[in-house]
Give the backbone structure.
Amino acid sequence: MITPDWVRLMAAYNAEMNRRLYAAAGRLTPAQRQEDCGAFFGSVHATLSHLLWADRMWMHRLDGWEKPESGIKGSTTLFPGWEALVAGRAETDSAIGAWAARLDPAGLSGSLTWFSGATGREMTRPRWIVVSHVFNHQTHHRGQVHALLTGFGERTGDTDLPFVLDLPALGLG
C-alpha cells in the first residue's frame, strides 16, 4: 500500500515534470503543438488537454472537485487555447499538491465507488489503487508527450525522479 509521503512525492514530481513538459511545448509553434503525430490522443496539445481533464476528473472523485464538463472523447478539446491549458495545468498541479499535503493514511484506506464513462459501469476499487492510477496515468501520457517533443527537437531536461526533486525540501530525504 502507498503512504501519504509517496503521494506528496508523486504530486511534487508530476508538478515538476509538467513544468518541464509545458516549457518545452511552449517553445513549439502552435501548429506543431496541434499536429497529429500518431500518439494515442494525436497531438501534444490534445494529450496535455486529456491529462488535465483526467486529473480533474479523478480529483472530483477523490476530493470533491468540480466535475469536468465533458467525457473522455471531449477531453482533448476541453482546453483549446494554449494559455488556458497552461494556466489550468499550473492551477491543478498546485491544488493536487495541496490535497497531497493534507492527505493522511485514512484518505488512502477504504474503497472508492464511481461511475466510469470509460467502462460504462459503476466501479469500486481500493482508494490507494485509484490514487496510484492518477499518478501512473500522468506518467504514461507524459511519456507520449515527451516522445513527441523529442521528435520536434525539444528537450525537457532530466526526467528521472531521484534527480529532479529536492527531497530534503519535501521532508522526504
Notes: The domain at 4-158 is CATH 1.20.120.450 (Four Helix Bundle (Hemerythrin (Met), subunit A)). The chain has one domain: 4-158.
